[in-house]
From TrEMBL:
<feature type="domain" description="Histidine kinase">
    <location>
        <begin position="1"/>
        <end position="146"/>
    </location>
</feature>
<protein>
    <recommendedName>
        <fullName>histidine kinase</fullName>
    </recommendedName>
</protein>
């Protein structure tokens, strides 16, 4: 359950968000999404992305973790931080690479781990500017799974009866 993985990570990291007065929210939990894979690795993937979002977003900002179904399960982590310059968005997946002047300690290993775990699950990872304004939008698109029936929404149910 992608939702269960997100809930576990969010609960774990909630105190860190709270300490920075960051509003950590989750969206999409009402739709149950199944992903095929290793729950320990998937937790590690989500943890690294949410960790980055909290770490690089200044005091009082927002972090939103969203799950949704768009032909296959999608996970998005959106933050109101400084964003990642476009010229660095591929380089940050290299081991030890860190954006100059980010002002926070780190090893530059989180995103390479994220990419490796995504590849093991045949999922894609992209980093973009947050369309909601300032910040980063990290998106993981999982492959279609035979476990996953497209979730029913009320409109579909109405059409069936
Ligand atoms: P760690 O190994 O502890 O995760 P890290 O956070 O520096 O260290 P990565 O997670 O690989 O390493 O991130 C690489 C770099 O990408 C970071 O140093 C930071 O400059 C930039 N970055 C990653 N996520 C964000 C984000 N949400 N907002 C702004 N910059 C980010
Ligand atoms: Mg990191």
């Amino acid at each position: 359950s992608l939702g269960a993985v997100v809930r576990e990570v969010a609960l774990d990291l909630f105190p860190r968000a709270q300490a920075k007065n960051i509003d950590l929210g989750a969206e999409g939990g009402e739709v149950e999404l199944q992903v095929e894979g290793n729950p320990v690795l998937l937790r590690e993937l989500v943890r690294n992305l949410v960790d980055n979002a909290i770490k690089y977003t200044p005091q009082g900002g927002h972090v939103t973790v969203r799950t949704r179904f768009a032909g296959s399960p999608v996970l998005e982590i959106e933050d109101s931080g400084p964003g990642i310059p476009e010229s660095d968005r591929e380089l940050v997946f290299e081991r030890f690479y860190r954006v100059l002047g980010s002002g926070v300690d780190g090893s530059g290993l989180g995103l390479p781990i994220v990419r490796e775990i995504a590849e093991l699950h045949r999922a894609s990872v992209t980093l973009d500017a947050n369309p909601a304004g300032q910040g980063t939008l990290a998106r993981i698109v999982f492959p279609r799974s035979h476990l996953q029936a497209p979730p029913l929404v009320q409109g579909d149910v109405d059409a069936l009866v």
